[in-house]
Amino acid sequence: MQGSRRSWMEATSTYNEMVGIRLRSIRKQRGLSLQDVQRLSNGEFKAAVVGAYERGERSLSLPRLHRLALFFQVPITQFLPQEETGEATIAPLPSGGVTIDLNRVEALSGTEADIFDRFLRSIQIMRQDFNGKVLTIRRDDLRLLALLLDEPEEGFKKRLVELGLTTDTI
């Protein structure tokens, strides 16, 4: 009986460590220190406690994990360990992409803004890229976004410049 309890405790500890690694990665991608998290959350997330989560020393409850996901503006699933496949998760960028200013996207309104937001968030989730400032989208992503917005592909980069979403040259 004690052997199975020990296995369960070891598995829980390993799982907590993997969640902590994801938490630290997301926090660092946002460019935040532990103290920044405490300050920006108005003390909801104490620096010492978040540090303990990151080291796997404390278990996160589901409601607490949900609050962290809201704070970092990422899906809760991004904190959960992924099964190792041995495959690279991020492919190199082909030429023809464009860098989007995510802060400018947030300033947009209307249906077009909703499409931009959902599309770009999906790319962030797939790449696990939550730095929150800019996102480089690939040529094929750009083509798909133009299609979703019912814009001609040829002039879509120009449209992004007009909207102030990119400063990339055309």
Topology, pairings included?
Blueprint: H1 2-29, H2 34-40, H3 47-54, H4 62-72, E1 98-101, H5 102-107, H6 111-127, E2 134-137, H7 139-148, H8 156-162
Antiparallel strand pairs: 1-2
Helix pairs in contact: 1-3, 2-3
Unreliable residue stretches: 85-95
* Annotation, overall tally of beta strands: 2
- β-strand percent reads under 5%
Helix vs. strand class: mainly alpha
Shape: elongated
Q: Could you tell me how far the N terminus lies from the C terminus, measured between alpha carbons in angstroms? A: 67 Å
What is the count of structural domains? 2
CATH architecture of the largest domain: Orthogonal Bundle
CATH homologous superfamily placement of the largest domain: lambda repressor-like DNA-binding domains
Sheet with most strands: strand arrangement: 1-2
Number of helices: 8
Q: How many strands, what sense, and barrel or not for the largest sheet?
A: 2 strands, antiparallel
Description:
Residues 85-95 have low confidence and may be disordered. The longest helix has 28 residues, at 2-29. It contains 8 helices and 2 strands. The radius of gyration is 20 Å and the shape is elongated. The chain has 2 domains: 2-79, lambda repressor-like DNA-binding domains (434 Repressor (Amino-terminal Domain)); 98-162, Orthogonal Bundle (Arc Repressor Mutant, subunit A). The protein has a two-stranded antiparallel ribbon with strand order 1-2. With 170 residues, it is mainly alpha-helical.
